C-alpha cells in the first residue's frame, strides 16, 4: 500500500492540510502588520535624543514589541506544526484501520508499505527515494491503496458530517 500517495491525493486529508496552510497564511499577514508596527516604532526611536527619557521609553517599547513578536511567532508556528502532526497522526490511524478491514476481509496476512512514485532523473531526491525502495517489484493487482482510499473517503466524510452537526 502506498501511504504517501494517500496523503498526497485523499481529498479529505488535503482539505485538512489546506486549512492549516490557510491559517498559516492568515498568521503571516497578521505578522506582517506587526512587523510594520515594530519598524514604525524603531523609526520613531530615531526621532528622540539618545539618553532622553522619551528615547529610553521608546527603546523599551521597541524591545518589548520585538520580544512579544518573536514569542508570538514561535507559539503560532508550534501550534500549526502540532495541528499538522495531529492531522497526519489521526489520518494514519484511519489508514491503518482501513488496511486492517481490507486485510481481514481478503484474508491477507501481511501488508507492506511501498512508494509507487516513479523516479524522475530531473529530481535528485526522487532518484534517491527510488533507489532506496524496499519493494523492487509488486503486482499492481495486489495494491490496497485504492481500497483504502475508498475507506478513507467514507470515514472522513462521515466524520466531517458529524463535526458539522456539532
Automatic annotation (TrEMBL):
The keyword ATP-binding does not apply. It comes from Rhodopirellula sallentina SM41. The keyword Coiled coil applies. Gene3D superfamilies: Skp domain. Keywords: Coiled coil. SUPFAM superfamilies: OmpH-like. This is Outer membrane chaperone Skp (OmpH). SMART domains: OmpH (SM00935). Residues 10-44 form a coiled coil. GO terms for molecular function: unfolded protein binding.
